[in-house]
Each structure stands twice: as C-alpha cells, then as structure tokens.
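Ops channel
N.P.: pipeline sanity check, posting one input/output pair.
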C-alpha cells in the first residue's frame, strides 16, 4: 500500500520532469539549429565576398600590359616569371597557368610537365567563360598537376586592348 502511495506521489513529478526535458531539449535543438543556420549563412557571405575579391584580382592581373604582351608572344618563360611573381604575391594560390583561347595550357607556375600542352576546354570554368568571355569561378575539382589536390579555379580572359581574347589566366 505504501509503495502504491509513493508511486502515485512520484508519478506527477516524473511526468512533469519528462515534459520539461522534452520541451527543454526541443528548445535547445531549435536554438542550435537557428544558430547553425545563421553561422552557415554568414560563412557563405564571407566566401562569396572572398571569391568576388579573387575574381577582381585575377581580372586585374589579366589586364597587366606585360602579361598581355607575353601571352600575345606566347613566351613560356616570360609568362612563367610573371606567374611566379603573382604566386608569391598571393600565398593562397596553389598554382597559376595560362591557356590559349582554345584551352591549351602553355605556361604555368610551378611548372607541371604533366599539364603543359593539355587541353582544359572540358573544364566547367572554360565552358562558362567562353559563353561571354567574363571572369569565372569554377566548381571544386581535382587538378591535373601533381599533387592532385581539390581546387577551385578563378579564371579570366587575357585580352588585347581592342577586346580580342588572346588566352586565359587561371589561378587555382
């Protein structure tokens, strides 16, 4: 009998505790979900601003008269020196290369013999760029050069002053 009375006395306490636990855990879950969504949104905004900055940098580099002259002359060594200087200036860049208008790589830094002479016209950045010859950011892909890291390409056309496209500069 006493056991039944104790059970009846503790039953409301147990039910209230269970209800409080469920309500509290749902509130915490909702708070964590909202916080995660806000952090993800802020991170997305930061990445977008970062890529917009990268596009501006690559586009500005593509406009440098020395690069335009080098691409016009298709001087592999002079281009590699300019690419080396650019890579030193932008530490986050893994590799930089130049293709001709049709997507054939002809100079790079650091030098990757496995990529020189390869056609990259099948890459999403090239296909997207050739629609309007505007700078682009690619999807994530495994680069051709060793080590085969996952990279994002930021590419811009290299143009003559009259607008004729000579080639493409690609920062990975």
């Amino acid at each position: 009998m006493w056991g039944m009375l104790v059970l009846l006395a503790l039953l409301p306490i147990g039910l209230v505790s269970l209800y409080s636990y469920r309500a509290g855990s749902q509130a915490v879950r909702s708070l964590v979900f909202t916080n995660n969504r806000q952090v993800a949104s802020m991170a997305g905004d930061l990445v977008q601003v970062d890529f917009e900055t990268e596009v501006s940098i690559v586009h500005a580099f593509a406009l440098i008269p020395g690069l335009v002259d080098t691409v016009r002359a298709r001087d592999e060594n002079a281009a590699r020196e300019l690419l080396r200087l650019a890579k030193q200036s932008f530490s986050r860049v893994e590799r930089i290369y130049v293709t001709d208008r049709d997507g054939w790589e002809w100079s790079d830094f650091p030098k990757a013999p496995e990529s020189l002479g390869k056609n990259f016209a099948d890459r999403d950045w090239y296909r997207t760029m050739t629609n309007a010859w505007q700078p682009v950011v690619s999807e994530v892909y495994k680069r051709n050069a060793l080590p085969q890291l996952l990279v994002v390409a930021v590419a811009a056309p290299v143009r003559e002053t009259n607008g004729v496209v000579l080639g493409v500069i690609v920062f990975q």
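N.P.: looks fine end to end. The helical segments are 2-62, 65-73, 76-89, 124-132.
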